[in-house]
Design a protein that fits this description.
The longest helix has 29 residues, at 158-186. Residues 44-51 have low confidence and may be disordered. The relative contact order is 0.17. It is built from nine helices and 14 strands. The protein is an alpha+beta fold. Belongs to the iron/ascorbate-dependent oxidoreductase family. InterPro entries: DIOX_N (IPR026992), IPNS-like_FE2OG_OXY (IPR044861), IPNS-like_sf (IPR027443), Iron_ascorbate_oxido_reductase (IPR050231), Oxoglu/Fe-dep_dioxygenase_dom (IPR005123).
Length: 348
């Protein structure tokens, strides 16, 4: 299997195995001190006129470019419907993800992510930045999961591979379409901007096991995503995702339907928009009785791409650039070392 360019970006910033290997969630009855956070207020914020829900965008709406650009600008997150992907595909991926996470721990650790790798089984890459561990296990796929699937199911790996590869293909097409709309909003006179990038993606299967003490555990600690955008499917219409919204605090984002997809702006799109689009600070809560699974697809330019703020020609006069040019690889390397301080390091 060829090394992905994403893996090249991360191999210079290795993690220790203790920050990669999840605990054995199947064998513990209470939250250990290593995973015990200060009390978390996980009461969902009620949605009313002063606290509207996240924008919902119909991809066949004739005003989709303006609506999506406005959603990126005001929220940094939105839901898409009429995206053309059948509910059966989400069900298939969830079924295969649950099949993986239901395996005994000694089986899953056979495909644990390497200390300087991207793909395989493990915890979130942000783990070393926090004093407590997260109630989460994940499995990351870039292109084909064949090598890992053969380790997990030596005689029965084909279905898993077919489902994951098919889903990635659909997500890549959709991600490209969304980027076309967003870049058209940012720079309508330069629609060719997107053609200057070669894109790649990564599929992250997330598992949040039932938690004995959900008020003192976190599925994912607060963070932003690194690439252009993330497409999230929260399976079985379950919720756990929260974003930090200015003047509103932590706000729960519940999918409007089983096939609705949640899309959020990542760091590189924030830079590309010259800070106009917020990179959404978000976290994930856990549940006492539901084992939640979610599917996250991360999409962005290949690591040798140069990201620079897009400023349209008619707005060029008087516009102050907020960020210097940065390659994707340099940015990912800086974030791997400094997490949320990274923006201050590339600010002009």
């Amino acid at each position: 299997m060829t090394t992905s360019t994403l893996e090249e970006a991360y191999k210079e910033n290795p993690l220790s195995l203790q920050h990669i290997l999840p605990i054995d969630f199947q064998s513990i009855q209470e939250v250990p001190n290593s995973h015990l956070w200060p009390k978390i207020n996980n009461v969902p914020t009620s949605h009313n006129d002063k606290n509207p829900n996240v924008p919902i965008i119909d991809l066949i709406d004739p005003n989709v470019v303006e609506l999506m650009g406005h959603a990126c600008k005001t929220w940094g997150i939105f839901q898409v419907v009429n995206h053309g992907i059948s509910l059966k595909y989400f069900d298939e991926v969830e079924s295969q993800a649950r099949r993986l996470f239901a395996l005994p721990t000694e089986q899953k650790v056979k495909v644990v992510r390497s200390t300087n790798g991207v793909t395989g089984y493990g915890t979130a890459r942000i783990t070393p930045f926090f004093s407590k561990f997260m109630w989460h296990e994940g499995f990351t796929i870039v292109d084909s999961p064949l090598d890992h699937a053969k380790e997990l199911w030596p005689n029965d790996y084909k279905k898993f591979c077919d489902v994951m590869e098919n889903y990635q293909t659909k997500m890549k097409v959709l991600s490209f379409q969304l980027c076309m709309f967003i870049l058209n909003y940012l720079q309508p006179s330069h629609e060719h901007s997107i053609n200057s990038f070669e894109f790649e993606g990564a599929l992250q299967l997330n598992s949040y096991p039932c938690c004995p003490n959900p008020y003192h555990a976190l599925g994912l600690a607060p963070h932003t995503d690194s690439l252009f955008l993330t497409i999230l499917h929260q399976t079985n219409n379950t919720k756990g995702l929260q974003i930090l919204k200015k003047d509103q605090g932590w706000t729960s984002i519940a999918p409007v339907s089983n096939d609705a997809l949640i899309v959020n702006v990542g760091d590189l799109l924030h830079i590309l928009s010259n800070g106009e689009f917020p990179s959404v600070y978000h976290r994930v809560l856990v549940d006492q009785t539901k084992h939640r699974v979610s599917l996250a697809y991360f999409f962005g330019p290949q690591v040798d791409s140069i990201i620079s703020p897009l400023v349209s020609s008619q707005d060029n006069d008087g516009v102050v650039l907020k960020y210097r040019n940065v390659t994707v690889k340099e940015y990912l390397g800086l974030k791997a070392k400094h997490l949320e301080k990274v923006f201050s390091m590339i600010r002009i």
